[in-house]
Every structure is written in C-alpha cells, then in structure tokens.
Amino acid sequence: MEQTNTNFIHEIIDEDLASGAVDHVHTRFPPEPNGYLHIGSAKAIWINHSTARKYGGEFNLRYDDTNPVKENDEFVRAIYEDICWLGAKPDHVFYGSDYFGICYEQAVKLIKKGLAYVCDLSADEMREYRGTLTEPGRESPYRNRSVEENLDLFERMKNGEFPDGSRTLRAKIDMASPNINLRDPAIYRILHKTHHRQGDKWCIYPLYDFAHPIQDAVEGITHSLCSIEFENHRPLYDWVVEHMDIPNKPKQREFARLNVTYTVMSKRYLRDMVESGLVDGWDDPRMPTLCGLRRRGYTPESIIEFVKRAGVSKAYSVVDAGLLEYCIREELNRTAPRRIAVLDPIKVEITNYPDGKTEYFTQNNNTEDPNAGTREVPFTKNLYIEREDFALDPPPKFFRLKKGGEVRLMGAYIIRCDDVVLNENGEIERLLCSADLETRNNNPADGRKIKGTIHWLSAETAVRGAARLYDRLFTLENVADIPEDKGYRDYLNPNSLKVCENCFFEPSLASAKPGDRFQFVRLGYFCADTKYPGSFNRIVTLRDSYAKGK
RNA sequence: UGGGAUGUCGCCAAGUCGGCAAGGCACGGGACUUUGACUCCCGCAUCCGCAGGUUCGAGUCCUGCCAUCCCAGCCA
What was the ipTM of the complex prediction? Predict the structure, then answer.
C-alpha cells in the first residue's frame, strides 16, 4: 500500500512529533471478535496501519475481547485472516483479555487512591441514579465506602462470592457531569461466564472504557485512532490514562466511520442476517464483509483504494457505492483476462458456412495489456450469441443484430440476419445469418460502416455453466420475508440476485480456478466462485452506455 | 430542551498568515472504437448551512441562529 495522501490525523501526529509530545508512532486496530470484519472495518484498519507505516512505526492487532458473551475463536481466526488479506499484516497480535491481571491491579490502585468504589446498585437503580441528558445524576449511597471495604468487596467480587449483576466497581468522577460517561461509570462487572481465551479464570470483567485505555497504554500505543462515536468517551479515556501508573500516555483521536449507500454496516444486523439464514453465511457474495467481498471477487487493493478515495474527515457521510465499483473496474480493466461467455444464449446458424468446418480466430486476452497475449477461439457454423444482442423490434439507436441488419462478430466476420425462426410459442428459436467471408480481418471493401460488435461462442465447443448476477452491491432478496422492524430492511432489493443456469463459456474457462477473475467481454467482471464449482459471480458490470441510448 | 461533534458541487473531499473555491466519483457533450468497454478532450459551486458584523477584501475572523449525528449498556 502506498502512502501518498495525508489527512487531518497525520496533521495531528505531525504536531505531536514536532512538539516532542511523542518521538515515534504506534497504532492499533482493536476489533471485538464478535463478528466478521466488513468494509467499514477496512477504513479503520487502513487508517491505523497506513499511519504506522507512514511514520515508520508499528501496528498492532489487538482483539478487544472483554465481553465473553459475544466473542469466540471463529471470529478471532477470521479477523486475522481478513486483515492479512487486506494487506495490513500486524506487527504484533495481542488480546485485551491477556491484560485482565493488569486491569485488576490498576483497579485496586484506583480504589486505594479513593477513585473507585464498589457499588451495590442494581442495573435499574444505577440507571435511575444516573440522571438524564438534561438532569444531573445522584450519588450512589455506596459512593463513600472506605478504601478497606472497597478493597475487600472488590477482591471478593473477583473470588466469585457474588452473583452476576449484584455489584460493580465504579470510577468516582462526577455524577453531575454534563457528559454522562463521566457520571461514575461502571468499570468492572461480575459475569460468571467462560471466556473464549481465559476460560473460567475470571468472573469479573473490565468494561470497555476502563480496559481500552489500559490496553493502549500497556502496548505503548501513541495514537489510538477510533471512530467518532467514541469522542464522548475521550474525557473518560484520558481520566483512566491519567490515573494509571503506566508511563505511556496514549492519545485517542477520532475520525468518521465509513458508510456506503445501499449497505448495511451494522455488525448486529449482519449477524442477524447470517443467523436467520437470509444469506449463505458471512461470506455470502452479497455481504459487505471482507470475506463476502473477497468471494464476490473484489481485490484487497480495490478496497483499500476505495477507502483512500473516500477520504478521512470527521463529517458524517455516506459514500456512493459507485466509487467502490469504479475502483474494482479500474483495477480489473488493467489486469483481468478477457473471456467470452454467453449468459442467455440464442442460436445462430451461419447458412453460408460449411458444415463441420472449424477456423480459429485470434482474440486479445487484454486489450489494455499488450503483454497479456492472445488466444485462439474456434468458429463454426452454429454459434450462440446473447439474446439481448438481437432485437425483433429494435428501438432507435440499436446497433446490434436485427432482421436484415448487420453486426460484427467480435474478432470474426460481419454477419447479416436473413431470417428468424420462431417456435410454436412465437419465441425466437434461432437466427439464420449469412457471413461476409471477406471481413475476417478487415472492414468491408465497399466502405459500409458496421456500428455494432457482439460476442459469440461456437455451439460445438462452448461449455455449460452458471453465473450469479448481483444487481447492486450488498442488496438482498426476499424482502417480504423480513419483518418491517428490522433495521436492514430498507437496504434490501428483491431483484438483487439472478442466477443464470444455462450459460455457455469459452472452453478455457472450464479450467478456471476458484477466485480467478475475468472480464466477460461486454458483460462485466466475474470471479469463479469458491463454493459452487463451475459458477461465476459477477463482481460488477461494465459501464453500460447503451442503456442510456448513446 | 444538557453536553460533544459536524455542516464547501448529486456523493466524497481539499482549502496555509483572511486575498478572491483543488481533486475524485457521478453526470452531460464530443473524439476514437472489431468490447456502445477502455482511452482522450470539453463542461459541471460568482459560491462555501443561514443571517448579521469586522475588513480594501472572509469559505477562512466575530456574533446570533438553523440542521444533522453521538451520549442516559453492569456492550464495544
């Protein structure tokens, strides 16, 4: 990944470096292993990783695994895999839960300093005492327990003497603060639950606001870059950092998270869609997860490029999915081999072409890349063309095949449609065409211009297969099955997935390996699916100007 | 309605000490074209949430409004 552009985060760091506040840069990406990474995560990964690289610093992956009820090892593995795939292999991998001992020690020190206390209020009571946005909170009756009592109670919490929810450890800050996060936030809770990594070692768990700054401090993080909804937590983050006896004092800085049009970015909803069976799994090609995008055929480079182009600021924004599509087209136009596929075939018979004859036509593997070479494609009397490339009743400016009209078979002859054979239902059975055999490698001698060029396949050699067409990124089907109160319902598109079961491909595509990407000429960019052999996912269409009548 | 943050072209986003609005996507027009793709030209904010003020001059300073987002988990 190249680091050319800067942003306001880098300006902040430049100032810190210039003022001597720090002499190096160390960042981290701290996902909670409670789901798979998505394209929104890619922004956070890129910002933290590229910032570290730009300043020659280090980049940690740290699992923020302080809540055992939502986390598991499957997510831990998947996150590492996806972050590496993106090209942001971390210099170090840590687990927040490995610092539970340190968190505990720091909590004890806080108690000794009179800055934390054990509170016996229930969750409901605590909420009541907390006040509201406009009214200050009230102090807990347990707020002024003695240090000795707090120490004793906290130790007994740790030893498992109390049931879940019966007590918390709270930071003693200010119940009247206009910032609700500062109204004596709970920093430890009792939870008798097996942790995916720590097992049953602990029955008290530190909350995010307490654990996170400690994790950052312990790892030597200089800049803790996170999304903007944590801005309200910064005073608390600083409070914790201030009162820990850890020399490193990391700074939290915030940026706006990534939103993309038509895209559900909430991990909760994504999990819901997976668990309800609405999608194939976390790697369903319609999902905005990194593994979903990967299976769909997106490259890590295109995703990083998208994130970079979308930019970094603090303003709420929704980036047009068209930008992501642009990024993958731009890359694949340069790199993807061209192949021919006919998704919805219609038979064409070249009436003036000999039975049993086969000639080979040379096709460019990639017109954008002279080094990509060429390949030989067989031509025979019977062909398939795309049903859409013929019109019985052509609209204005229809440059493709019509009765009595001519069209160029790409890389081969110009043909004229002489007759249309219909079946008993009045549907097109096949087209009877004649080829201008003089036009193999050149234009007509009489100077007539043939505006349209279409792709074709020899019916004798084409191989059958399937293609899965996704209409727009991340849109899903079966809207009617989804309750109206689901937050992701508005993002769903009932026509999002079309499976073409009766496609034909160039013979060479039969040996495509899962993950191989191609441009199917005139149809779009496709990727051989990793789950269904012989089927191709459409990553994105080509820009389509005949839809606009140009 | 308390606090915090943000508001520059349809969507993102640059805009140093105030000096007279980058770029990308999208879109429109044209050239080229054996992918109506690609590529290449050209166009696309007299205006910077609104209203005042300061100034020779303000997107950039001041004042006051307005709008949107975040915060009342023993989630992160």
Answer: 0.97
